[in-house]
Amino acid sequence: MMASTAPGALDQSLPTLSGTTIDPREAAHFGAMASDWWDPAGRSAMLHRLNPPRLRYIRDQVDRHWQLDPRVRRPLDGRRALDLGCGGGLLAEPLARLGAAVTAVDAAAEAVAVARDHAAAQGLQIDYRAGGVEQLAGETFDLVCSLEVIEHAADQPGFVRGLAATLAPGGLMILSTPNRTALSRLAIVTLAESTGAIPRGTHDWNRFLTPDDLAAMVNGAGLRVVDICGIAASPTRGFRLSEDLSLDYLLTATWA
């Protein structure tokens, strides 16, 4: 079991990375949210609600890509997975439970410290690192995930190229991000941030990407888009996978 640190404290034993795709203001913003990352009613509550449909989508894409039986409990056994922009570990931990050897990276060292503590308490071995994608040069992963992250990157095309460089031959990359639409501006920026459902200043609508924008970046990095799926929301049903891409969406790519 790894030694524990106080929630939100910077663990000096963590490998510290830096990268040109990191916006320091974004890293500071999310670092300040680290202490209650695992509180489903805290400042990351929206991510807790997003997690079930996102995980369902990842599992479906993994099963389809590697032609696996959906009843298998650990479909990622023997595979390496990267969670870039891992925050407190909401995705990294389920990936580890699905059998993957997980490397999880985030620009906010405070969030990484919280993630490392939480994983240790769960008995999960996850390679957590503070920093950006650039310092992963030379490492490759079978599954590369970066969910709700690219809209915070300083260099979005460079961010996608960096992720593509970590994707192993035959691997699978899954991204998610809000669409740049009137609906996303109203729901995510105007309403959610003004009511406190999402902390103020979390999003800049001008950084949101349309599916065509993101697909062009993915294609420019040498990958091929194989699936795009929307995430819709309603007061009664919460978040769910949908054909409607107007709020938020997931994109899957492989090598062309």
TrEMBL record:
One of its GO terms (biological process) is methylation. Pfam families: Methyltransf_23. Its EC number is 2.1.1.222, 2.1.1.64. It catalyses: a 3-demethylubiquinol + S-adenosyl-L-methionine = a ubiquinol + S-adenosyl-L-homocysteine + H(+); a 3-(all-trans-polyprenyl)benzene-1,2-diol + S-adenosyl-L-methionine = a 2-methoxy-6-(all-trans-polyprenyl)phenol + S-adenosyl-L-homocysteine + H(+). GO terms for molecular function: 2-polyprenyl-6-hydroxyphenol methylase activity; 3-demethylubiquinol 3-O-methyltransferase activity. S-adenosyl-L-methionine binds at residues 54, 85, 106, 147. Pathway: Cofactor biosynthesis; ubiquinone biosynthesis. It comes from the Bacteria. Keywords: Methyltransferase, S-adenosyl-L-methionine, Transferase, Ubiquinone biosynthesis. InterPro entries: SAM-dependent_MTases_sf (IPR029063), UbiG_MeTrfase (IPR010233). Residues 1-22 are annotated as: Disordered. The keyword Disulfide bond does not apply. The keyword Methyltransferase applies. O-methyltransferase that catalyzes the 2 O-methylation steps in the ubiquinone biosynthetic pathway. HAMAP family: UbiG (MF_00472). Belongs to the methyltransferase superfamily. UbiG/COQ3 family. This is Ubiquinone biosynthesis O-methyltransferase. It comes from Sphingomonas jejuensis. The gene is ubiG.
